[in-house]
Amino acid sequence: MSEQMNKPPLLRIEDLRTYFYSRVKRAFVRSVDGVDLEVMHGETLGIVGESGSGKSVTMLSAMGLVTTTPGVITGKVTFHDESPKDLLEGLDANVKLERREGRIMRVAKDNQLWQKQADRNLKGVRGGKISMIFQNPRAALNPFETVGKQIAEAVRLHTNIKGAAEAKEKAMYWLEQVRIDSPRMRYGNHPYGLSGGMSQRAMIAMALAAEPKMLIADEPTTGLDATIQARIVDLLDDLKARLGMTMVLISHDIGVISRLSDRIAVMYGGRVMETGPAAEVLDEHAEGHPYTRALLSSTPRPENVLASGHLPAIEGEVLDTINVPPGCRFKARCQRINDTVRPHCESQEPELFELGSDRRIRCWLYAPK
Amino acid sequence: MPEPKQEVPILEAPLLEVRDLRKHFATRRGLLSALSREAGSQVIPAIDGVSFDLHENETLGLVGESGCGKTTTGKAILKLHNVTSGTIRYRGADITSQTQAQFRPLRRDIQMIFQDLDAALNPKVRIQDILNEAVRIGEPGADKEAVQRRIYELLDLVNLKKNKLANFPSELSGGEKRRIGIARVLAVRPKLIVADEPTSALDVSIQAQVINLMRDLQAQFGLSYLFISHDLQLVELMSHRVAVMYLGQIVEMGPAKEVAKHPKHPYTSILWASIVEKRSKEIEDGGAAPAWGVFDFERPRGGCRFAPRCPVYAARGKPAICTDSASAPTLQPTGEGRVVACHFPL
């Protein structure tokens, strides 16, 4: 364990910014606006946030999967396997920004060169060292190929197993690992022959077949029925324990996040608002960011209902990431804002203040005195 | 606003009575089987003998997995589906036998909030005109000023600002679209609202706002809700009573808190135990994870539909009565206003 503690983080994201240009609004949508994250060896980092908070775009940017034009991605993403590697290296060279009075007015991007550079950076990493599973398994599986062949392909592509027969055996092994009933029969099934839960399992098997160092799971249970959701969560929990895998779990569902994560990062409006050990961040009665606290108590659960019969809702709307106001991003909806901190909240965005050894909170209430 | 009371006085006749409702969809596979009807056609019993009552000022939650027939039931009540058999009585009048023209006056009383926010609002019509049309139906013969006053009143009811009227639906956020959907429904002064997953497309922080709004409106106008959702905790807190559906049938019904706390049907028990959050707590407490039934997507030919997945059926050594087509379990009262369809209730 101590050896692991001294290791550098497996993935380190520094000041990542992903802006999309909206032609209609002639402005930038600042989806990810300065995100710092670290994923340590063997841990599960849960990224929780509402839609539009930038949780998915953060990981997609890191994996070179944001291809929509025109957009800008800046920052540093270091994947530290045997030696550190910057996954965003040299991408800036392919983008020209036109500024007027300090504001970015136009983006000229050489998309082909950008994509080439991204692919070069990520060769052997994406799909091999880092695998991803997505919300919609049907969209991620090739509808014209049997599930088994797709898994065998991943085996031959990313591991030392190159023979067809051995790859097939290995694919069968992974189908067993994800607890698909009668894997021998399912090997020959096409994706449309599988139910939603089974497609999700097949996709997990495909992701694992590359024997990755890290698995990124983007909303792995969203859209599945409650009973199947619970079983997929059980499966991920079990795989985590058995394979000792590093995982990044992205979800809006606090239940799923709390069940699987060691550490949690809470995102709002393109920024990390709070990070820390899962138990501390999700403890409703402990200290924490006003947004996280409000999110926890507004979740529709019977125990959250107030005496008046109402739920303690967060008033207002989710942050508009085009016109980001000065100061704290959550100030308009914050219920804990008071006269002492208000001048700070209005004028300057708080940094991630340290609270204890492993906890950081982006809120003026936690600024060092 | 008071919390939903657990016991609803059953003094008056129910607002809505659904009896033995069935809706069977026919599917045909491919061109050849379409030509030879007998061979290829397959009947999917989306709802298969559903009965329940809904009283005034009451919320009945309808829960179940996708494909269990929740939405089909809701749509049947609005006569958006022609049912195969069974009756739906609204204030004593049988609406299943009515023609669409006969049903039209009742359309104002029975309204639906649809799951898909974007599909429910015409993208090319401004909010002002969307509400204008609804108000004109709700207040026939009202003059222009009265209509506009009513529009402002509706906006006020759903906590929206007047400046949204000039917007198109695409310029609104999810929460705002949902509020417009609710305002439009309220324009015709309904009595019964079928709410099909009203919060499923919303962000977590917006969900609570919409739930509070729906509960306030219920208290203010004495509305009845048929609240359809797959979110068990949401149904538990929104509903007075809850009906659990499985493959087109209600397997258990009763006061929401009771059903959630002490499920009697094995399926209800599995459903509630699968709430991910609750499971994590159980596991932390050292409790055993609940037993799972084996999945079987083939519908059983006779007897209890849940038997192939049922842990009780398996634990009892597969008793013949569960799969005997002559003795399919029917809803039996178990006291406290609860009914359950199971040979071996928990």
Word description of this protein:
The complex is a heterodimer of chains A (369) and B (346). Chain A is 32% helix and 24% strand. Chain A is an alpha/beta fold and 369 residues long. The mean pLDDT of chain A is 88. Helices cover 36% and strands 21% of the residues of chain B. In chain B, the strands form two sheets. In chain B, strands 6-7-8-3-9-10-12-11 form an eight-stranded mixed beta sheet, with helices on both faces. A four-stranded antiparallel beta sheet of chain B has the order 2-1-4-5, with helices on one face. In chain B, helix 6 (127-138) packs across helix 7, helix 6 runs parallel beside helix 8 (174-186) and helix 8 packs parallel to helix 9. The two termini of chain B are 35 Å apart.
Could you give the topology of this structure?
The complex is a heterodimer of chains A (369) and B (346).
Chain A: H1 2-6, E1 11-22, E2 27-39, E3 44-48, H2 55-62, E4 71-80, E5 84-86, E6 95-100, E7 103-109, H3 111-122, E8 130-133, H4 137-140, H5 147-158, H6 164-177, H7 183-186, H8 196-209, E9 214-218, H9 226-243, E10 246-251, H10 254-260, E11 263-268, E12 271-277, H11 278-281, H12 290-298, H13 342-347, E13 353-354, E14 360-361
Parallel strand pairs in A: 3-10, 3-11, 8-9, 9-10
Antiparallel strand pairs in A: 1-2, 1-4, 4-5, 6-7, 11-12, 12-14, 13-14
Helix pairs in contact in A: 5-6, 5-8, 6-8
Chain B: E1 16-27, H1 30-35, H2 37-40, E2 42-54, E3 59-63, H3 70-77, E4 85-90, E5 93-94, H4 100-107, E6 110-113, H5 117-120, H6 127-138, H7 144-157, H8 174-186, E7 192-196, H9 204-221, E8 224-228, H10 232-238, E9 241-246, E10 249-255, H11 256-261, H12 266-273, H13 276-284, H14 311-315, H15 320-323, E11 332-335, E12 338-340
Parallel strand pairs in B: 3-8, 3-9, 6-7, 7-8
Antiparallel strand pairs in B: 1-2, 1-4, 4-5, 9-10, 10-12, 11-12
Helix pairs in contact in B: 6-7, 6-8, 8-9
